[in-house]
Amino acid sequence: MIFNGEEYTIQFWQGESLGNILAIDTETTIKPFTETPDLVTLQVFDGESLYYVDRSLVKDFFKKNSFCLFVFANAPFDIDVLRKFTEDKYLLKEQIEHGNRLFDVNIMYRLYKLATVGTVPRRYSLAHISNELLGIELDKNEDIRCNFAEYKNTSIQKIPKPFLEYGAADVLATFYCFIRLRLEVSKLNTSTNLSHHIQLLGALALNRMYKNGIGFDEERASILLKELNSKLEVLHAKMSAYGFVKGIKGNQAAYNYVVEFSGLPIPKTAQGDYSMKESDLEKYKDNPFIQSFLEYKRTEKTTFFIRKLEGSRVHPRYDLLKNTGRTGCSSPNIQQLPRDGDIRSMFKSREGNTLLITDYSAIELATLAQHVYTNYGSSIMRDKINDGADLHKYYASVLFGTAEDKVEKWQRQAAKAANFGFPGGLGIETFIEFAKGYDLTITTDDAQRMKDTWFEAFPEMKEYMKGEEGSVTTLTGRIRADTTYCAEKNTPFQGLAADGAKIALYNLMDAGFELVGFVHDEIITEVPENTVEEMRRLQEEIMINSMSLVAPDVKISVESTISPRYCK
Predict the structure, then answer these.
(1) Do 282 and 336 fall into the same domain?
(2) Cβ atoms 121, 113 nearer than 8 A
(3) What is the tens place of the pLDDT at every residue in 82-108?
(4) Residue 63: which CATH number?
(5) Residue 415, phi then psi, degrees to nearest 5
(6) Going by DSSP bridges, is the β-strand pair 10-12/6-7 parallel, antiparallel, or unpaired?
(7) pTM for the complete prediction?
(8) Is 467 inside any structural domain?
(9) Beta bridge partners of 72
């Protein structure tokens, strides 16, 4: 076959040892993403020769070449397929955990783009990567791609040549994309292997979590949906009294009329309409119309969310890498569930099991303290955490001039807004808006005093907050280029916390936990009721030890909740 102008001969592996770097690809049957498909072909390229491995020899192949560096285009998928076929749950485990013996082109590409252009690309299929890096357009012939199942139990020598050449093109592209990426990444001044390794662990765990899914109470959801629809009718009637008769969608003109009539100074959009954004309306929530409108909008959003859910188990899709290093989630996005207990209680464990929900405590302050301590040699924030202090009470004591044990609830809440707002580079005006999320209404002078006092409480942060737009590197070696000032300040501690959590996810999976949910600093597993206390202790230990790998100089704390439903 011809690939990129070169001719390659397809050979059948006969038991020989191959080169040091092996690109691996599989072709499989088509099954739902929550069900691991069956292996049809395994193709390998070592930089010189192209091989197909007969199904009967797959175990022997990996045993014979265990010393090699393995390269995949989509490691979580291919490894799942191979482990299922070989019935070996430890297949490639050593390579995965070693850190530089298994690479994923998909992950490398996303890290490379983040380091060079500052954003994670939306498209990162092998076809897209090959086209960009090699200038080669892979032929994704649907008549071939969708029909490998016909040869599920066929000897490799009897599979038609077009099917073999289809798979061969993928494994050749995988190898040459890896070589190109490794060359480009080597030009970056960073510990790329470590960064890639952490993301690989996270990808494997998130793939498993997606397949596991989380239990969903359809009956409760149906009852809740009826209640919400009745609420919408009541709210709609209230708004109709103001002339707002069609609900929210498609009724901007009616909304504009009501706002204009009310005389409220609500800001306008670029199109000249009055804003419907909650952040713009929150200050006018005492107005009867705005109050009903906001409640209607939130309720409608909730009903829309519930309608999309079906089945006794839902399978949220997790996006491994956002620009800060955090994960994303969709279909459904359980990382942005309303805090309403009724909504969260729709998600549940199986009978005889329970959900084990473990949170890292103030983890992004801990990783901020680690970053500052590593880069500048000292950190009061780190010292306070290690002494067991409540950082919010400590700062509140400085802000309000009171003893830590005398800090009132509202004072701690104000301190919490500052501790979570100022590290991200918020200016005075943006902090005033941010503080509203903590039920805090403050003036410009108040905000300035809080900021000044925050630097008095944590003087090491003065150095940290210096800087400008540019690139930033996490302690785990991940580069984010061309950042804004706020992004530059957020990325080091948000990214470090995300990296520690991804390690924890993998280690929990490896320890036998059933992963069912992940919300930034919170990991949800499903465990048997009769072992829950033992599993709680183990889960907490694993999460603490995993995060300590990226934040070794700061005390890591967690809190657990045991509940048959996802509510606290």
Answers:
(1) no
(2) yes
(3) 999 999 999 999 999 987 899 999 999
(4) 3.30.420.10
(5) -65, -35
(6) unpaired
(7) 0.93
(8) no
(9) 24, 104
